[in-house]
# Entry
Amino acid sequence: MLKFNNLVYRALVNQIANFALLEWGDNLAISDSSPDTYAAARAEKFSKKELQQVYKWHALPDGWEHMKYEQFLIRRRELMALVIRDGYATLSESSRQTQTSLIIPIHQLAIQGESVTLEYKATLRTNLHTYQVDSRMESGCLKTIAGFLNSRNGGTLLIGVMDNGTPVGIEADGFLNEDKMLLHLDNLIKERMGSKQMMYIHPHFEDYDGVKVLAVECSPSGSPVFVKDGSLERFYIRMGASTPELSSSQTHEYIKERFS
# Structure
């Protein structure tokens, strides 16, 4: 019986879904540490976009470092199948032609109008009717970001642009500087959507028509993204130029189709 258990254990450990290529020094440094101990230190070596690519092409599920081993193997097998599929897709000339980058000049984005991959918000936190900080403005931005993350194509949120595409800048939000605004956005995302989503979100400032705007580029997330709203968790998707919330049953079906 003991021999059988050892064979089963060895088979689990030696699965392809558990294999990873590490430099000798990295492997030695990790030693017998648990993933939730060493993963954060390894991640610091990469930028957010680089880390996103590492997760994608190495078939690492979001939150893998906290998963039970058997759960990790199951989820990674699924992602490995998607990597193989996407790898074959890149061999297609038509596929290469349709692949696009999120990095598009702001002036080109602003003249496109809101769409399934683009939305404008005049402010991050200030209500322009009362000129007071309003949590509803923050929720609106988080809702859009979550919708882009949950979609297959991602998208870009432009903060500092009116619904009609007119740039108004970020001054109305009243931050002392750009770093303070980025920090506020980061804290909102971590608090209400989870820190593991940060590698899929790439905010940066750009000049547009004489004012500064904040572009929040969102890549498709590797796992479902919910937005905390008090005791509730809400699930949004991008549909046309809107970001509807799905019901519980709709969320279940969408997640099964989108993330499995």
User: Anything to note?
Assistant: The first helix runs from residue 2 to 13. The first strand starts at residue 118 and ends at 121. The radius of gyration is 21 Å.
